[in-house]
Amino acid sequence: MTWKSEEEKLAWIREKLYTPVVSDMLDRLGFRKQAMRHDIRPLHPDFIVVGRARTLLWMQTFEPVKPNPYVNEIRAVDSLRPGDVAVHSTDHSWTVAPWGELLSTAARMRGSTGTVVDAVVRDVKRIIAMGFPTFARGIMPLDSWGRGFVADVDVVIECGGVEVHPGDLVFGDYDGIVVIPKAVEDEVLAEAFRKATSENRTRDELLQGRLLGEVYEKYGVL
Amino acid sequence: MKYLKYEQKLSQCFSSVIMDTLDSVGRRAQCMDPMIKPLLPSMRTWGEAYTIRFDAVVEVPKEPYGLEIQAVDNLRNGHVLVSQCNSSEISAAWGGLLTTAARARGARGVVTDGGARDYTEIVELGFPTFCRGLTPYDSLGRMDVTEIDVPIRCGGVAVRPGDLIFADVDGTVVIPQELADEVISKAWEKVNAESKVRDALRAGASVVETFAKYRVL
Fold first, then answer.
1. Which of B68, B98, B134 lies closest to A176 in CB terms?
2. CA of B116: which chain A residue's CA is closest?
3. Is the pLDDT of residue B168 over 80?
4. Could you say which architecture CATH assigns to the domain B27-175?
5. pLDDT tens, residue by residue, A106-144
6. Selected residues 42-81 of chain A with any CB under 8 Å from a CB in chain B
C-alpha cells in the first residue's frame, strides 16, 4: 500500500480505518500496549485525530518559572506543522490545564490536526465550537501558570500509559487513542485495512442470518 | 423466553422503581457498580440473563473466542448477554460484529463489567450496550471466555442464568428469577402510583398532602 504524500496518507487513515482494527494489528505484531488509558476521552463524540506526535514534557511547579513560564509551550505550539498533533505528557498532579481555546486556535493556524492531553483542559465549549479534535482526561478551569512548566519538547514522553516518540503516528476516535510506532507504521496500516475489509464481509454474512461460528471460521475476524 | 409476557409492564418501568421494589423485599444490593453505563443515555434494556465469564490470559489461547462465539450463537429472543471480566486491564468484551450477530439471534442488549469498542457501529445499530468504558483493545490475548451459562458476578452483583436484567441510564439492576413475578408486579403498581402523584403535584397539591395520600415519592 502506497500513498502519494503524507497528507494523502493521513486522509486515507481517517476515511478507511478505525482505532480497534489498528489496535488489533499492533497486537498481532507484538505491540500490545499502544492504546492509551480509557479515561482519556474526546471532548466531542465526532472528534477524530490523525497525525504526527509532537511531544511536550510537562513538570509540576509551585510558582511561575522565571522569566516566562510559557516559554517552551509557546515555542512548541509555534513550531507545529501541518499534520502535527501536540501530545502532552501525563500530569500526575491533576492541577494543570495545559490546553485551552487560544492554544487550539494557534495550533489550528499552523495546520495541526488535534491534541492529546493526559491532564485536564479548559475552554471546552469553545474548543468544541471550533471543532478542534481535543482528547483529555478531564476538565478544570486552572491555568498552567505557576502550576506546570514544559520542561522539554520533541522528546520521548509517556501519555495515557503509552510511550510516545516524536513523529509516531497518533490516531484517536471515540473508541480511544492508539500510538503507532514508526518502525511498523506502514505494515500496521496495510494489515488494518485488510482486516477492516474482512470485517465488512463478516458483517454482511451475519446480516444474511449466518451463525457467528461459521462466519468466524471463514474470515477469522471478530 | 420467560419474561416476554411482561413486555408491556417492563416497558413502563425504570431501574429506580425496580430497585425500590427490591429494597422493599430486603434485597438492597442488586444494582451493579455505577461505572457500568449505557453508550447513550437513551439506551435501556431488559431480559433474561445469558451469562459468560472472561478470565485474564497472558497469551493468545489455542482456540481464541471459542466459547464466546458459542455463547453469542446460543442467544435467543429476549436474552440479555451479561459478562463478567476477571481482568484488571480493560479490553473489549463487546464490539460491532458481535452486536450484529447477537441482534440477528434476537438478543435485547449486553451488560459487561469490562470494556466495549466500535462505538459508532453499535450506536448506529441502536443495540443497548452497558459497559465500564470504551477501548480499542481487543480481548484477544488479554482475556478469554472460560465459562458460559453459569452463575457469575458482574459489576459486584451475582447473576444466575435466567435472572431478569433491567438496565437504563440510572443503573443496571439484577432481579433474582424467583422474585421476578413479585418485583415486576409491585414495580408496575408503583409506576402507576407515581403517575398519580405527578398528576396531583401538577394540579397544585402540596407535597405533604400528596405523600400522605399515596405514600410514594
1. B134
2. A175
3. yes
4. 3-Layer(bba) Sandwich (3.50)
5. 999 999 999 999 999 999 999 999 999 999 999 998 889
6. 45
Q: Chain B residue closest to A41 (CA)?
A: B134
How high is the pLDDT of residue A97?
86
Q: What is the mean pLDDT of residues B127-131?
A: 98
Q: CATH number of the domain at A35-180, please?
A: 3.50.30.40
What are the structural domain ranges in chain B?
27-175
* ipTM reported for the complex, 2 dp: 0.73
For residue A30, the distance in angstroms to the closest alpha carbon of chain B comes to 11
- Answer yes or no: do B73 and A212 touch at CB < 8 A: yes
Q: In this predicted model, what pLDDT tens digit does every residue of B75-101 receive, in sequence order?
A: 999 999 999 999 988 999 999 999 999
CA dist A20 and A99 (Å) reads: 27
Residues of B in contact with A13 (CB under 8 A): none
In a mutagenesis test of the B interface, which of A17, A38, A170 is the best target, namely the one with the most B β-carbons within 10 Å?
Answer: A38
Taking only the tens place, the pLDDT of each residue in A1-11 is 889 999 999 99
Nearest chain B alpha carbon to A20 = B136
- pLDDT at position A27 is 96
- Cβ–Cβ gap B97/A206 under 8 Å: yes
Q: What percent of chain B shows pLDDT beyond 90?
A: 88
CB pair distance less than 8 Å for A38 and B69: no
